[in-house]
Design goal:
binds acetyl coenzyme *A; three-stranded antiparallel sheet
């Protein structure tokens, strides 16, 4: 953290003493005003629910320029990573700070593939769920359960242990997601096949059965790998901040990641891909492209509580760069599968075009986010809609654990403990029950 020569001065209209606050500069992006001593100096807290103007930590992993629509992992633009690298190279980059060379890639791939199996007891844990349980409910439970399998062997103060926890999580998430899927459809679990690529192995565990040979399609494998890269990290979003806050108490890292899975589930965050596809289905059922105008009218009517899912973002005030790449992948996958005329894709393109020309969306800088097209790709691959957010969780796990390990590795980290503006009753006395 580099201190700026400029300082911020906070003054009070009631003549209270001015407070000088240090400013720090990052390598890119807005400077930050350091308010850590503000309470000690003034007896006041800052108020920023929703973290609209608050940097919650220092990080060197991911950078977003929301106005330009730019996303960088460790300095590399997402477009270059998505076209030149695979997901495991991206994981190496996020975890260790650099892209692997050939030997490092081989070693890293071997390390991850060594951990793809889960403890055989996990299937009994799964059996406790209803068959119709939502996959994200199952995933929250399963990832939390991993903490029971690796509790005594995980000392979060030991960097090597933190690294092993990261590798285990990256390796086991596809196995768990596929198991959750197989459980809900009543098919046998497929063990991982380590000769396959990360994405290929996931496709195998999802769609193979013991009675037939399953051949991984290279186009679908590449598309899924790209989905994983695009979702791998996104700086201090809600689920990552949840993982950091949860982990800041020194808890078991698998438990902290389970908290991230729970947060991601919500429709304002990772659940948006499922919600976006359901929205497209609903418009299609109501009459398709001809009904877009009516739908947009509803979205603009605030009392309707209807949102254009897959549109808008807290940080991007421009086209989400991941949405562009996802749209490209969407076209590739649909072509490969002979679904060029997929009505939902056509509907999505028409909806996007109309929204991007509408004053409501233009003035609020609402553009498609990654979730607008990812559902169509996943559906074409054969992934059922309720599993979409679990795929997101699988991919985001590397980001969560990289951010968690970055925090714990920082000797200055403290337990996260926000404060509040209290609006409740002042102190009062409990009355005997007969007098209440
Ligand atoms: N449809 C219609 N109106 C919208 C949308 C939308 N998708 N998104 C934002 N707006 C409107 C808001 O109503 C608000 O209007 P107002 O100024 O008239 O009150 C204005 O745009 C600003 O929006 P906020 O809700 O204040 O923006 P915020 O940063 O809090 O929310 C969010 C961002 C949650 C992503 C929001 O845009 C949204 O709900 N989008 C739909 C869900 C979605 O796609 N989420 C995925 C996010 S990306 C991810 O997690 C991978």
């Amino acid at each position: 953290m580099k201190a700026s020569e400029t300082k911020a001065t906070l003054s009070f209209s009631n003549g209270g003493q001015n407070v000088e606050l240090p400013i720090y500069k990052g390598t890119m992006g807005p400077d930050v005003i350091d308010i850590r001593k503000l309470y000690a100096q003034t007896g006041m807290f800052t108020y920023d629910p929703g973290f609209m103007s608050t940097a919650s930590c220092e990080s060197a992993i991911t950078y977003i320029d929301g106005d330009k629509g730019e996303l960088l992992y460790r300095g590399y633009p997402i477009e270059q990573l998505a076209t030149n690298c695979d997901f495991l190279e991206t994981c190496h980059l996020l975890l260790y700070g650099e892209l692997p060379n050939t030997t490092q890639k081989t070693d890293f791939t071997k390390l991850v593939t060594n951990h793809t199996m889960v403890n055989e007891q996990m299937q009994f844990f799964l059996r406790g769920f209803r068959r119709d349980a939502h996959p994200m409910a199952i995933m929250t439970g399963l990832v939390g359960a991993l903490s029971a399998f690796y509790h005594d062997s995980t000392d979060i103060n030991n960097p090597k242990h933190r690294e092993i926890a990261a590798i285990r999580l990256i390796a086991k998430m596809p196995t768990l997601v596929a198991m959750a899927y197989k459980y809900t459809i009543g098919q046998p679990y497929m063990y991982p096949k380590n000769e396959l690529s990360y994405a290929g192995n996931f496709l195998h565990m999802m769609f193979a059965t013991p009675c037939e040979e399953y051949k991984v399609s290279p186009v679908l494998e590449r598309a899924l790998d790209r989905i994983f890269i695009l979702h791998a990290d996104h700086e201090q979003n809600a689920s990552t901040s949840t993982v950091r806050l949860c982990g800041s108490s020194g808890t078991n890292p698998f438990a902290a990641i389970a908290a991230g899975v729970a947060c991601l589930w919500g429709p304002a965050h990772g659940g948006a891909n499922e919600a976006a596809l359901n929205m497209l289905h609903d418009i299609q059922k109501a009459g398709g492209v001809d009904k877009i105008g009516e739908f947009i009218k509803q979205v603009k009517d605030k009392s309707s509580n209807v949102k254009l899912m897959g549109f808008g973002h807290r940080v991007y005030k421009n086209y989400d760069p991941r949405a562009k790449l996802m749209q490209e992948t969407c076209k590739e996958v649909l072509n490969e599968l002979g679904l060029e005329n997929d009505p939902l894709f056509k509907l999505a393109m028409a909806l996007e075009k109309i929204a991007l020309e509408d004053e409501y969306f233009v003035s609020r800088k609402l553009y498609p986010n990654v979730d607008f097209y990812s559902g169509i790709v996943q559906r074409a691959i054969g992934i059922p809609v309720p599993l979409f957010t679990a795929i997101f969780a699988l991919a985001r796990t590397v980001g969560w654990i990289a951010q968690l390990n970055e925090m714990i590795g920082d000797p200055e980290y403290k337990i996260g403990r926000p404060r509040q503006l209290f609006e409740g009753s002042p102190k009062r006395d409990v009355q005997p029950i007969a007098q209440r």
